[in-house]
Amino acid sequence: MRLSPETRLSPRTLRNAEARSALAREDFGGGNAWRTALRTSPAPDLPALVADRPVVNARGEEQGHFSLAELVALADAWSAWYRDRGVGPRDRVVVHIEDTFEDQVHLTALAQLGAIPVLLNGLMVPEYVLALVERCRPVGIYTDETRLARLEAGLKALDDGPRWIHTRRTAGLLDGEPLPESALFRHGADDPVVLCHTSGTTGVPKLVVWTHRQSVAGARFRLETHPEPADSVMLSAIAASHSGAIAFTFYAVLAGLPFVSLSDRSPEGLARAVRTHRPTIVQAFHPVHSALANSRPEPEDFSSVREWMNTGDSAHDTHIRTLIGLGHHLEDGKPVPGSAFRDGLGASELGWAALGRTVTAESPARPRHLGRPIPLADVTVLREDGTPPTTARSGCSPCAAPPSPPATGTTATPTTAAASATSGSPATSSTAPPTATSSTSTGWSTASAPTPATATRC
C-alpha cells in the first residue's frame, strides 16, 4: 500500500506495555531490528514515519510518508542492489549524503547483508571524509553529486580506493531481483553493524564500532522502562547519520512510535514541523534547542510538546527554562501548561546517554548538575591514574555497562580488522565472539571482546 502525501501518522502503530515487554525479551539486534519490528508490529501497513526531506523510493519517486512495511521493503530493495554489486559480509560501504532519513535506510540495507555501513555526516569537510575513507577501506561509496564533486580528485589519489562510487541518480531504479531470504546475515551478538563517528572537535573524527547487540541495548532498555502515552509522536531534529539518530530510530521502529525525521533544524524549520505534525516529544542537540529558545518561539506552535529531549552535551539552564515554559504536561489526565526537559549526557562512544536529569518548572536551578547515572550504566569519577579523586576535585568519567553495553569503545585508528571481525554467517548463527586484533604493520589496533565496554571522557 502506497501512502499518500496527506497521510497522517497513526497512533495504532504504537505498542502497548505488554507488547513492548514481550519484544524486549526477544533475541534481536541492530542487524535485524527492522525485520523484527515488522514481524511483530500490530499495524505494519499504517503510517509510521514522516521525513521532511522525501526519500527516493525503489521506483525513483520521492516519498515522505512510510509505513513500517514500506520502510522494510525499501531497505530490502537497496540490499538487493548492494548485493548485485558484490557487497557481502564484512565489507564496509561509506554513506556520505545530506543528512536525511535515507541514512537510516542504507544502514539497515547494508547491515542485514552482514556488510558494515560507515555513516559520515553530510557536513563533514572533504579532508576528514577522505581520511576516514582511507582508514576504513570501503568497497564502495554511496554519495550525492554535490559531495562527489568535492571528493572526486582526492578519491582518485588514494592508493587503495573504493571499487565503486554511486549516487542516487546513477543507482537508477531498484527493480532487480528480490532479496532472497538466504542473503540475510545472522549476526553474532558482537558483530559490527555500523560505524559512526565522533564529533571531530579535536581533529579527524574517530570511527566508533556499534555491534549487533549493543546498538539496540538502549532501545531495549527504553522499551521496558519508558512506555509512551497512546497519543505520542516523536520528532527528531538530530542529523540522521549521528549515533543519537541511529539509537532512537531503532527505538521508534521497534516501539512503533510515530516518528518525524527532520532535516531542517533551523528554528523556523522546527517550528513549522511541530506545527504540522504536533509531536509530543522533540529530540535535538543543544545547539538546536538553544537556537529555538533564542528565537522567541510562539507558544501556540509548541502547545503539543510534553517533553524535550537533549542528548550529547548538557544544555544550559537559561535555554531549558524558556523551552519548558512552552507545551504542556498531564495531571490527572488533563493538560496543564509547562513541559519537561530531559537532559542526557552521552557520546558516540556510549551509544546511549549515561547520565540523565529531568527539569520542570518546579526544579531548582542547578546549572552545574549533569544528572544521575541511568540504570543501564555504571559511572564514576577517577583521576587519570585510575584512583578516586578527593571530594570536589575534577577527574575523568569512565562508564561501564554489563552485560549488554550501551556502547562499544572508540578505536584510536579505526580498523579494517575490527570492522571485519564477524562471528555470524548467512547460514548459521555463531556465539563465538570476535577476538582481540592488532597489527603494527598497518597502524591500527583494537580489541573486540565480549567483556563490558568502557569509554572515558577526559
Automatic annotation (TrEMBL):
> Where in this chain does the record put each AMP-dependent synthetase/ligase domain?
48-388
InterPro entries (UniProt xref): AMP-binding_CS (IPR020845), AMP-dep_synth/lig_dom (IPR000873), ANL_N_sf (IPR042099), ATP-dep_AMP-bd_enzyme (IPR050237)
One Pfam family this sequence matches: AMP-binding
Residue ranges of region Disordered?
384-458
Residue ranges under compositional bias (Low complexity)?
407-458
Q: Which Gene3D superfamilies match?
A: N-terminal domain of ligase-like (3.40.50.12780)
User: Could you tell me the superkingdom of the organism this chain comes from?
Assistant: Bacteria
Would you tell me the protein name for this molecule? Answer: AMP-dependent synthetase/ligase domain-containing protein
* Species in which this protein is naturally found: Streptomyces thioluteus
